[in-house]
Design a protein that fits this description.
Maf protein, 41% helix, 5-stranded mixed β-sheet, Alpha-Beta Plaits, 17 strands, elongated
């Protein structure tokens, strides 16, 4: 079934806010096997909104609107939708009672319009705000109206709209998400294309993420369990094709894999960061339960700190500079010794936009790793187009991936 997302709000057209609703809804629709062919943004103008609705009505099987369900005069989505689809608005007494309970004694008369809903619609109860959503079918088009604020729209879509839509699609979609680091979207697509072309009841689609790639494997069946079971053998084939570039399936991030992997092995990690400025420690401690594996991190930006805190030899910096394989290794050894951790990881480099040398230009980063089984240094490929923040994020990603490959998977 072909879908259109219609976001209503002049503030979107003026660039005052980002259209997060469309992103969340589009992702959710694709995950459940619905084709999103159009995304439209229109301001709070009845005539232009009417024209956008008439167009969507002709071309879409499913129309999802966001915004314009509030109490103010410029909240006109329901009124205009009702007019275009021939569904007069009626006061929903149950929603009016609910609205009064939520707003309280300071409720003004204009709030009551939020309880006006299209005749015969399915009410989508809003437990996250005041304006209820609704759904109905008219003229061969299923219409779903959702509130605009993302804090309301996101749970309303996931917990109210999706169950309604799943009844329309004949079966249930199940997806596995293969997370990949070290291979770009084009390489993943090229390597897995023969497998994708051979599949009949399962689909595969790669998506570029920041610094990594995700491959979604999807199937439709009578139950979600059956759909996921259809995906599993394909996932194993993908693993065989991509090898250790696959860092996990249905996981959130590299740092989650590293933290959980260290927990499973009963190991701890400490980090010594220069160019990443504490980003590795921050991402580790973003994971719940990180205290089981992480208790020590140093940001040693100055060379004096590298020497005085981590024990990097003055002659190492003098001979090789602070951005070098030798310095990275001594930093990793030093933080491991200082903290008593099983694994020490370090970063040192030129994040830019200034700095760098002819031998090691901006974007060069060395990542050191020291553990009981040995030590190693990795220098990621330098990308000329990367900004300072991109260099730092990429360095942190490579640090996590180095721990995964060298410590957790060997």
């Amino acid at each position: 079934m072909n879908c259109e997302i219609l976001a209503v709000g002049t503030e979107l057209l003026m660039g005052e806010i980002v259209n997060l609703d469309a992103q969340i809804i589009a992702q959710g629709l694709n995950e459940h096997g619905f084709n999103v062919y159009w995304e439209t943004v229109v301001g709070d103008n009845p005539q232009r909104l009417r024209e956008a609705l008439e167009t969507a009505k002709r071309r879409a099987d499913i129309l999802i609107t966001t915004g314009g369900l509030g109490p103010t005069a410029d909240d006109l989505t329901k009124e205009t939708v009702a007019e275009v689809f021939g569904r007069p608005l009626k006061m929903d007494r149950q929603q009016l009672v609910r609205l009064r309970e939520r707003v309280g004694p300071k409720m003004t008369p204009n709030n009551e319009k939020q309880a006006m809903l299209p005749e015969g619609c399915t009410v989508l109860v809003n437990d996250w705000g005041t304006a209820p959503g609704c759904a109905f079918e008219a003229d061969g088009c299923h219409v779903i109206m959702l509130p605009g604020p993302p804090r309301e729209c996101t749970p309303m879509f996931r917990q109210r709209a999706l169950p309604y839509l799943e009844k329309l699609c004949g079966g249930v979609i199940g997806s596995r998400y293969v997370k990949i680091f070290g291979q770009g979207e084009s390489a993943v697509e090229y390597l897995t294309r023969p497998l994708a072309d051979s599949l009949e009841n399962v689909t595969m689609a790669p998506y570029a993420k920041e610094g990594e790639c995700e491959l979604r494997v999807t199937a439709r069946a009578e139950t979600k369990e059956q759909a996921l079971a259809m995906c599993d053998p394909v996932v194993e084939q993908v693993r065989a094709i991509l090898g250790d570039a696959v860092y996990g399936v249905d996981v959130e991030s590299l740092e989650e894999v590293v933290v959980n992997g260290l927990k499973a092995k009963g190991m701890t990690v400490a980090c010594a960061e220069s160019c990443t400025g504490g980003l590795i420690a921050k991402r580790i401690t973003d994971i719940s339960g990180a205290s089981e594996v992480f208790g020590y991190g140093c940001v040693t930006y100055w060379n004096e700190a590298k020497r005085n805190v981590l024990g990097v030899k003055p002659e190492t910096i003098e001979q090789y500079t602070e951005v070098s394989e030798q310095c990275a290794l001594e930093m990793a050894r030093g933080v491991r010794k200082l903290s008593g951790a099983d694994v020490g990881v370090s970063t040192t480099g030129y994040a830019g936009p200034t700095g760098g040398t002819e031998e090691h230009p901006v974007g060069t980063v060395f990542i050191g790793l020291s553990w009981e089984g040995g030590e190693t240094v990795f220098c990621p490929e330098r990308r000329h187009t990367r900004s300072r923040e991109q260099v730092r994020r990429a360095a942190a990603n490579h640090a996590f991936d180095l721990i995964r490959r060298e410590v957790l998977e060997k």
